[in-house]
């Protein structure tokens, strides 16, 4: 074949293969798959936060024309496995949080199902719920581990002594809010049980992990379950694990064999049933010499979890490895509350965990009269302070310096509250970003030759990240053929297994399997394969992970403008410079980085889930009141990267870009607001009430 040994397809700005179908509205999502005579579900949820339901009255609902079933804790199928209390829905009368599902109406139309759900009567024995997080609770406890399996605490040296002896110290408490992922497509499932097999069209970040979980919960062999998810309208981690909605859809389908069942959570329901990021309270202490070199670093984090299922976000993890300090200590403590179960959200750990440390570094720079970029450079470690291993690549300093040059940092007057543009106070801020660069074993890819082109099959997911586009580029590069001659098939458990799209590991994990399969294919069949020729490859273990610390790094620069009269805050510029290995596709990578930065901007300016302490629910549970960044908030937004070569990562030399963009953004904005106004806001989001009383 004359097309072999083509120029590398990796690094090309290929157009998204799924773009046209999405724009035209022909890409089928989980709620839209064409099935015959679908029926619809609507949930009945608890109106109290703690107690029991003593009666679920369904007579009036069941008498409504078009209602097919009303499942309750008294009538629903008993699950085979209830170890995961979040998924043990309709299995008992206990109510551990407000919004717990107590009933499921199945009807011929969504309108009838919703109406019938309103007719269901629930009686309660109510107890007083505890839903308020604070750092001075006497029932805080130390979890056995933090997500996914890191030590809860860390310590090296004598931190207390070093803080006492330090020439300059910063001791402050920083807080981040409760955040809900809120992808544009809500959590949605279409389920069909034919009496022998279960088919789930699900909005998920991993079809094979979903099948494994549902098989366990229902006591079915995985071979009797097929999960299909070719298109996903965003996830941000919330669709990386099975939540109650998938179990409920399956319960409904098994109650009505042969009828496809559709269940889509409403926006309001997602605030109780689809996970969220725990609020955090971060007590940060830094001690340094007059030269700015850190002598001590301590971060003590308090966060919440649910009483029925523990999730401990690894908030203090990045502080363990970010900067050189001979004396270091980090801790995590949890409050178990009567609240829904927290879960993954974009950059768990690193996103909230870099807010306190990076604002504290800015405060230290102010105390020292030192440029914030230079302070970070001076504390650059030679090796990973946590593991002691060398970094496979660490170009944070270059990100800081290149980003500063592109941003115009050299022209900055270091004094806060000095620069004005009419009524606007103007300031700039910087923060660093970091995210682990890993690959997960457990994926398999098949390469087959069909009708003159190569077909790559792997059960991977595209949650908007570009998998449909970049996997053909990776395969084409390994096969030495044009990417246009490579077709990819993903998002189905009938395809070879793949790990979840999470932790910025998708391309590294699935791409490694694709490369192995492509190499095996070329070795077996050479340049002239025949139709039907195929080979498989698995994601190999990476022995270098034991010997190197592997991370992506970045530097975020923000320009904030605050109206001196009204306190109105605008971020005029937000620039990020990243070192993320080899970029497979600049178009999709830039989209991910800009999306992450926008999400970080949203975290800085708007997002907070407000819990009513009397009733235990999030009161601003819709897009009218849970504010997220809109076009008007995103002005000059820019993402750049360095050409970085790291031979220890994977065959592509790629690091994940899905999450690092959000990390550090909120801290950079907060630091810019301080530089503009002289007002230090340590509690996110940065709202008018926190600025106005202290404005000059």
Describe the structure.
The chain folds into 3 domains: 39-128 and 182-273, Aldehyde oxidase/xanthine dehydrogenase, molybdopterin binding domain (Aldehyde Oxidoreductase, domain 4); 154-178 and 277-438 and 547-694, Aldehyde oxidase/xanthine dehydrogenase, molybdopterin binding domain (Aldehyde Oxidoreductase, domain 4, 2-Layer Sandwich), CATH 3.30.365; 440-541, 2-Layer Sandwich (Aldehyde Oxidoreductase, domain 4). The strands form 5 sheets. A 7-stranded mixed β-sheet has the order 3-5-1-12-9-10-11. Strands 16, 17, 18, 23, 24 and 25 form a 6-stranded mixed β-sheet that branches. Helix 9 runs parallel beside helix 15 and helix 12 (467-479) runs parallel beside helix 13. The chain is 24% helix and 24% strand.
Q: What is the level-2 CATH architecture name of the largest domain? A: 2-Layer Sandwich
Q: Can you say what the CATH homologous superfamily of the largest domain is?
A: Aldehyde oxidase/xanthine dehydrogenase, molybdopterin binding domain
Q: Do you know the CATH topology of the largest domain?
A: Aldehyde Oxidoreductase, domain 4
- Structural class estimated from helices and strands: alpha+beta
Helix content bin: 10-25%
Beta strand count = 25
The order of strands across the largest sheet is 3-5-1-12-9-10-11
Q: Measured on Cα atoms, how large is the radius of gyration? A: 26 Å
């Amino acid at each position: 074949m004359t097309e072999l040994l083509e120029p590398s397809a990796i690094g090309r700005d290929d157009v998204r293969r799924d773009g046209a179908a999405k724009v035209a509205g022909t890409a089928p999502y989980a709620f839209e798959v064409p099935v015959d005579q679908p029926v619809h579900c609507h949930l009945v949820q608890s109106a109290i936060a703690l107690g029991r339901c003593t009666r679920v009255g369904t007579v009036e609902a069941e008498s409504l024309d078009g209602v097919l079933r009303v499942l309750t804790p008294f009538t629903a199928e008993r699950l085979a496995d209830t170890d995961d209390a979040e998924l043990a829905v309709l299995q008992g009368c206990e109510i551990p949080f407000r919004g717990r599902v107590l009933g499921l109406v199945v009807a011929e139309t969504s309108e009838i199902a919703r109406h019938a759900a309103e007719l269901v009567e629930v009686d309660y024995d109510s107890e007083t719920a505890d839903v308020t997080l604070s750092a001075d609770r006497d029932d805080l406890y130390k979890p056995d581990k933090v997500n996914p399996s890191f030590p809860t605490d860390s310590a090296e040296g004598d931190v207390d002594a070093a803080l006492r002896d330090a020439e300059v110290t910063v001791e402050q408490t920083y807080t981040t809010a409760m955040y809900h992922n809120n992808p544009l497509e809500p959590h949605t499932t279409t389920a069909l049980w034919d009496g022998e097999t279960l088919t789930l069209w699900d909005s998920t970040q991993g079809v094979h992990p979903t099948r494994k979980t549902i098989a366990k919960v229902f006591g079915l062999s995985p071979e009797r379950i097929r999960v299909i998810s070719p298109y996903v309208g965003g996830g941000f981690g919330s669709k990386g694990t099975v939540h109650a909605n998938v179990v409920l859809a399956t319960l409904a389908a098994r109650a009505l064999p042969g009828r496809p069942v559709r269940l889509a959570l409403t926006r309001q329901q997602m605030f109780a049933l689809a996970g969220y990021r725990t609020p955090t309270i971060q007590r940060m202490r830094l001690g340094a010499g007059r030269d700015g070199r850190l002598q001590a670093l301590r971060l003590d984090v308090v966060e919440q979890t649910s009483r029925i299922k523990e999730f401990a976000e690894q908030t203090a993890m990045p502080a363990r490895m970010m900067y050189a300090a001979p004396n270091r200590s980090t801790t995590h403590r949890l409050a178990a509350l009567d609240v829904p179960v927290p879960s993954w959200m974009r950059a768990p750990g690193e996103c909230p965990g870099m807010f306190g440390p990076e604002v504290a570094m800015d405060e230290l720079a102010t105390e020292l009269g030192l440029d914030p970029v230079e302070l970070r450079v001076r504390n650059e470690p030679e090796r990973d302070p946590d593991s002691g291993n060398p970094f496979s690549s660490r170009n944070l300093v270059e990100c800081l310096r290149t980003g500063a040059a592109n941003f115009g940092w050299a022209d900055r007057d270091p004094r806060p509250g000095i620069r004005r543009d009419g009524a606007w106070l103007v300031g700039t801020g910087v923060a660093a970003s970091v995210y682990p660069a890993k690959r997960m074993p457990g994926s398999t890819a098949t390469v087959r030759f069909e009708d003159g082109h190569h077909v790559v099959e792997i059960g991977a997911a595209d949650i908007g990240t570009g998998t449909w586009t970049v996997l053909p580029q990776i395969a084409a590069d390994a096969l030495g053929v044009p990417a246009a001659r490579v077709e990819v098939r993903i998002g189905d458990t009938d395809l070879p297994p793949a790990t979840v799209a999470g932790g910025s590991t998708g391309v590294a994990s699935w791409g490694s399997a694709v490369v192995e399969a492509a190499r095996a294919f070329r070795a077996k069949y050479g340049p002239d394969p025949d139709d039907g020729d195929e080979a498989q490859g698995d994601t190999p273990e990476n022995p270098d992970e034991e010997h190197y610390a592997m991370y992506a790094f970045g530097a975020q620069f923000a320009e904030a403008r605050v109206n001196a009269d009204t306190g109105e805050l605008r971020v005029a510029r937000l620039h990020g410079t990243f070192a993320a290995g080899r970029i497979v596709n600049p178009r999709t990578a830039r989209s991910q980085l800009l999306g992450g930065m926008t999400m970080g901007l949203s975290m800085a300016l708007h997002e907070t889930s407000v819990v009513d302490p009397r009733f235990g629910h999030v009161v601003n549970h819709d897009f009218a009141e849970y504010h997220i960044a809109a076009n008007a908030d995103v002005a000059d937004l820019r993402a750049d990267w360095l050409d970085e070569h790291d031979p220890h990562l994977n065959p592509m030399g790629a690091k994940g870009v899905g999450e690092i963009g959000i990390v550090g953004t909120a801290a950079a904005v907060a630091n810019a607001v301080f530089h503009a106004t002289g007002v230090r806001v340590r509690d996110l989001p940065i709202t008018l009430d926190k600025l106005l009383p202290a404005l000059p």
